[in-house]
Design goal:
The chain has 227 residues and is mainly β. The protein folds into two domains: 2-169, no CATH class; 175-225. It is built from three helices and 14 strands. The strands form six sheets. It has a four-stranded antiparallel sheet with strand order 11-14-13-12, with no helix packed on it. A two-stranded parallel sheet has the order 1-2. A hairpin with a 6-residue loop joins β13 and β14 (219-225). The chain starts with a strand and ends with a strand.
């Protein structure tokens, strides 16, 4: 399961969750039962960030696409809340196609504006989706692209497809083999090691799956052969 932190006071997020049998916007459930060395269930949570529904804020203003981050009260009124941090693409200055009113605030007078600075979990609005996929296609900062509302086709380039899928295919394919060796490791070796590092052993490329380190003794290391 790949997901973001769940903001239960986020009205737009909870509407989607409640109408889709508990699906969390931007999350992905991946069935890895066909892989040979995986056991149990694993949650990858992009803490401390929450997913954000991006859509036109008002149906009559189709160009006014903004992050929908607000709570809703029982009387139908809406307000801000202490939300989890979010990650967005800067989509640049956009036109609403109409005029909207900004009340006086922070020592500034009121004004009417037609433009706004747009942010979303998409790198482009409207989206750019090619067949076959191209390097210029829209990227989506979610684990699984959602059905978009008035923003174009759902991109295929998301967090899972770009970063996790290649990793899973490399490490956990049916052809993957594991190898366990005793290795002489120093404390500095362990401190400097990153699990995304690759290791060459007899002209084969491996990744490290587990390290059982004991000071003043040989460490037990499980390697995964990259097919």
């Amino acid at each position: 399961i790949f997901q973001f932190v769940e903001d239960e006071d986020d009205y737009a997020f909870m509407v989607i969750k409640n109408s889709t049998s508990g699906h969390l916007y931007g999350s992905k459930e991946y069935d890895a039962s066909g892989f040979t060395i995986l056991e149990g269930e694993k949650e990858i949570i992009a803490e401390p960030f929450a997913a954000t529904v991006s859509r036109p804020f008002y149906s009559q203003f189709a160009n006014f696409v903004v992050p929908n981050v607000y709570s809703r009260n029982d009387d139908g009124t809406s307000e801000g809340f202490d939300n989890s941090p979010r990650v967005f693409y800067n989509n640049g200055i956009k036109s609403t196609g109409a005029s909207y009113y900004i009340p006086p605030q922070n020592g500034l007078s009121s004004e009417n504006q037609t433009n706004f600075l747009q942010f979303s979990h998409l790198s482009d609005i409207p989206t750019i989706v090619s067949s076959p996929p191209a390097a210029t296609d829209t990227r989506d900062f979610v684990f699984a692209s959602e059905q978009l509302i008035g923003l174009g086709d759902s991109p295929v380039d998301n967090l899972y497809s770009m970063y996790w899928q290649p990793y899973f295919n490399e490490l956990y394919s049916p052809d993957t083999r594991t190898m366990t060796l005793k290795v002489n490791l120093s404390p500095s070796d362990v401190a400097a090691f990153k699990f995304y590092d690759t290791v060459f052993i007899k002209n084969r490329i491996f990744r490290v799956n587990k390290i059982d380190y004991k000071p003043n003794d040989l460490a037990t290391v499980e390697f995964i052969l990259i097919p």
